[in-house]
Write a structure and sequence with these properties.
Helices cover 17% and strands 31% of the residues. The protein contains five helices and 13 strands. The protein has a seven-stranded antiparallel sheet with strand order 10-1-9-4-11-13-12, sandwiched between helices. Strands 2, 3, 5 and 8 form a four-stranded mixed sheet that branches.
């Protein structure tokens, strides 16, 4: 392991529901299949008690990797919206300033579509400079605002911070890939044991050549309601086999998947 790597903070994200929307708004709120970079940065900013109008420039420099321990399943929620004072609801049309207009309909309640991931679990590794990572480690364990898994109603369960084998909050002297390979996989009831796990890494975080490149538009410009927007980042898709997965899982896969004998992915 190289000593040139910045320290890493590792979070285990789990809860009954998660929702990681990056582009949806108004009456249709979708979720991505993995935590977004905007969602992770929002969680860290909430832990530190930053207001929506506060700068997040230092958090945007963080490198992030996500391991999918349990993908979960999508859930659509029956959700209604109404104003408590009986005034007309906001509609999808906006004015010249980009603010939602109020409709003129006398209809007082609208049905919206909201999507969640249920029973999902992710390992998130976050890498940055020493001073910032120490502050974030403390903030995650002593959050100033309630923490959520992408949406305020999605409350995390269990301890978020994942310590290394020595009980330290920051993982040192390793890359994001090495950290995500070192965190134990924990079997969940009703989930079949895989033989390896998918990982999504910020491309610039590791000088690795395997895997597949992709582009994701989930980097926030600002959390200021008047300056919302996203930019893109390049990510790499790879696989890791962490501790906790048994050789039997690979044996069972070879027996049930005839294409594996041909070396197919």
């Amino acid at each position: 392991m190289s000593q040139q790597h910045n320290p890493i903070l590792v979070l285990r994200l789990r809860g009954p529901l998660q929702s990681w929307g990056i582009s949806s708004q108004f009456n249709r709120r979708t979720t991505e299949n993995v935590p977004s970079k905007s969602g992770i940065i929002g969680l860290l900013a909430a832990a530190e008690g930053r207001q929506r109008t506060a700068s997040i420039d230092d958090l945007l420099e963080l490198k992030i990797g996500v391991r999918i321990d349990a993908p979960g399943t999508q859930l659509r929620d029956y959700h209604t919206v109404a104003n408590f004072d009986g005034s007309n609801l906001l509609i999808s049309d906006v004015n010249a300033q980009g603010h939602q207009k109020r409709g003129d309909s006398k209809k007082q309640t609208l049905v919206t579509k909201r999507y969640y991931l249920q029973d999902a679990e992710f390992i998130v590794a976050i890498q940055g400079n020493e001073q910032l990572m120490e502050k974030l480690a403390y903030a995650v364990e002593h959050p100033r605002f309630p923490l959520a898994l992408g949406r305020r109603s999605c409350i995390p369960t269990g301890r978020l911070l994942e310590c290394n084998e020595n009980g330290q909050k920051l993982w040192r002297g390793m890359s994001l890939r090495e950290a995500l390979s070192a965190v134990n996989w924990r079997k969940k009831p009703g989930v079949s044991e895989p033989y390896r796990l998918p990982v999504i890494l910020d491309e610039s975080s590791d000088s690795i050549k395997d895997g597949m490149l992709d582009s994701i538009t989930d980097v926030p410009v600002s959390f200021d309601p008047h300056k919302r927007g996203f930019t893109s980042r390049t990510v790499r898709h790879i696989w890791v086999t962490p501790p906790g997965l048994s050789p039997e899982a690979e044996k069972n896969r070879m027996m049930s998947d005839p294409f594996s004998l041909l070396g197919a992915e």
